[in-house]
Design brief:
Number of domains: 1
Radius of gyration: 19 Å
CATH architecture: Alpha-Beta Barrel
Binding site for S-adenosyl-L-methionine: 26, 67, 120, 190
Shape: globular
Binding site for [4Fe-4S] cluster 1: 20, 24, 27
Structural class: alpha/beta
Function: Catalyzes the cyclization of GTP to (8S)-3',8-cyclo-7,8-dihydroguanosine 5'-triphosphate.
Catalytic activity: GTP + AH2 + S-adenosyl-L-methionine = (8S)-3',8-cyclo-7,8-dihydroguanosine 5'-triphosphate + 5'-deoxyadenosine + L-methionine + A + H(+)
Cofactor: [4Fe-4S] cluster
Oligomer: single chain
Mean pLDDT: 93
CATH class: Alpha Beta
Number of helices: 9
Order of helices and strands: EHEHEHEHHEHEHEEEEEEHH
Low-confidence stretches: none
């Protein structure tokens, strides 16, 4: 599907739950979230039908997100059913997870047809990890990453760059790629939800990675194929990605739309504009998606003086 600005929209992210087994400080409030009623959350059958409609329109990449998707009952079966769309044009079926349950589910996910996982891990230090997640155990995540590798799920590691918290670990994360064929991706902290009012000192540009590790060699940039600028250390097995939605936005080749766990389609992550699936009958899911694509703005306005942070937290949207 081509949007109003000539961009080919071929990537759909579907959040299957707003609940999580961690409470990351930039993602959700300390008190947690109020559990929605059953009827407020998209049924798995509806998610499958949305995926079917999306692939019919030309979407070839789908990613399941949360909250934490692995706590959604029936997630393995959902992956299996969506994976059947690979015969109809779906090329990539991914999942973003905090990794806590990945050791238990990695092999099942792979057998069900999952292509890859992205694992969020903002610190390698247990004390820091416990602080940012409000109670998590980093070893659980590391064990999950190992299980994902063994299952052939090609894990990418997502690290939200937070000034004064994990910027002293930049080198540690980068050097993980020396002997391990893994992609470590640094993501700029975004001023939305819980982080909207954080002190500016916590918001670091992705250029900080290059300042700390100037030996990184830039790799060819594929543009539409992904949002990360890729680098590697000399003779390293893995790669380093830098995702800069603030300092160097990629709106001009944005290829994605998002659906929240309560059925709202967000044409842009940084906008409060949403289309409600409840306003569309089931036979009009293709129109639901097409209307959302037509509503995509040219670019976000985070750095404009009149920018108003979006109302939802990330756990309510999907990463």
């Amino acid at each position: 599907m081509i949007d109003s600005y000539g961009r080919d929209i071929d990537y759909l992210r579907i959040s299957v739950t707003d609940l999580c087994n961690l409470k990351c400080r930039y993602c959700m409030p300390e008190k947690g979230v109020n559990k929605k009623n059953h009827h407020e959350i998209l049924r798995l059958e509806t998610i499958e039908k949305v995926a079917q409609a999306a692939v019919k329109l030309g979407i070839n990449k789908i990613r399941l997100t949360g909250g934490e998707p692995l706590i959604r009952k029936g997630i393995i079966d959902l992956v299996n059913r969506i994976a059947q769309l690979k015969t109809k044009g779906l090329k990539d079926l991914g999942l973003t997870t905090n990794g806590i349950l990945l050791k238990e589910y990695a092999l099942q996910l792979r057998k069900a047809g999952l292509t890859r996982v992205n694992v969020s891990i903002d610190s390698l230090d247990q004390a820091k990890f416990q602080t940012i997640t409000r109670g998590g155990n980093v070893q659980d995540v590391l064990d999950g990453i190992k299980a994902a590798k063994e299952a052939g799920l090609l894990p990418k590691l997502n690290v939200v760059l937070i000034g004064g918290f994990n910027d002293e670990e930049i080198e540690d994360f980068v050097y993980m790629t020396l002997e391990d064929d893994v992609e470590v991706r640094f993501i700029e902290l975004m001023p939305l939800g819980e982080a909207a009012n954080w002190d500016k000192k916590h918001f670091l540009s992705g250029t900080e990675i290059m300042n700390r590790v100037p030996r990184l060699i830039p790799l060819p940039f594929k543009g539409h194929g992904g949002v990360a600028r890729l680098y590697k250390l000399p003779n390293s097995k893995g790669k380093v990605g830098i995702i800069s939605p603030l300092s160097s936005h990629f709106c001009h080749y944005c290829n994605r739309i998002r659906i929240t766990p309560d059925g709202k389609l967000k044409p842009c992550l940084h906008s409060n504009m949403e289309l409600d699936i409840k306003n569309y009958r089931e036979e009009y899911l293709e129109k639901f998606l097409m209307d959302g694509i037509k509503c995509k703005p040219l670019k976000h306005c985070i750095q404009s003086n009149d920018y108003i942070p979006i109302e939802r937290n990330m756990n309510e949207i999907g990463g």
